[in-house]
Amino acid sequence: MPKLDMTAMYAAHAALRRDLELIARTTARVDDDPRRILRNAAGWAVFKKALHLHHAAEDEALWPQMRATAADRPDDLALLDAMEAEHDAIDPLLEEIDAALADPETGPERLGGLTDALAAGLSGHLKHEEADALPLMQEIVTEQQWLHFGQVNGRLVGPDAAQILPWLLDGADEHVVATMLAPLPEPARQAYRNQWVPAYTALDRWGAASAG
């Protein structure tokens, strides 16, 4: 079976890890109220949206296909169970963080504990997926199925592409950027360079939290 191009998958994981570091730095600030900063941070909103879309595409178009192929392979089914369970554990953390941000009685310590739990849970999931699930994908997912997964991902991202694509490629190397932009029609590539990236860059994504 031809090797699948997982550039987009690794790019998404790198972007999520990048933002986890920024979230940790935001909630560790002592020069301002981290609750106020994160509550109003455009970066937090984009991170949540991107994570939801990434997981939704896997849940809809990747795990079910793999589960059907691995129906007689108990160890592989257990891995897929774990992937889905890890998704299910991460989503409530986002809701708890938002609830803490909306509650004036919640202290910075509570927020820090929740964001630490998010970082541990999501980092662990990404590491687990890369170590075990991605090799399984290379083994059992066909090119047609991978293409379908990409199409579903594109459909889900579609309305938010102007925001999600610059987020995804923020800090990526030139090869990754070129690979991700290549399938787009030229007008979309021009919009990415001339409109989407400048608009994304102009956002105060983390309340200047990366300072210091």
What do these coordinates show?
The chain has a single domain, classed as Four Helix Bundle (Hemerythrin (Met), subunit A), CATH 1.20.120. The chain contains ten helices and no strands. It has helices at 7-27, 34-40, 42-61, 63-69, 74-102, 108-140, 143-157, 161-169, 174-181, 186-202. The longest helix is centred in the middle third of the chain and has 33 residues, at 108-140. The protein is globular, with a radius of gyration of 18 Å. The model has no long low-confidence stretch (mean pLDDT 93).
Q: What's the short story on this structure?
A:
With 212 residues, the protein is mostly helical.
What are the main properties of this structure?
single chain; 212 residues; mainly alpha; Four Helix Bundle (Hemerythrin (Met), subunit A); 0% strand; globular
Order of helices and strands: HHHHHHHHHH
The name CATH uses for the topology is Four Helix Bundle (Hemerythrin (Met), subunit A)
| Number of continuous helical runs | 10
Helix content: over 70%
Overall shape: it is: globular
CATH architecture level-2 label: Up-down Bundle
Characterize the largest beta sheet: strand count, sense, and whether it forms a barrel: none
Contiguous uncertain segments of 5+ residues: none
Break the fold down into its secondary structure elements and pairings:
Elements: H1 7-27, H2 34-40, H3 42-61, H4 63-69, H5 74-102, H6 108-140, H7 143-157, H8 161-169, H9 174-181, H10 186-202
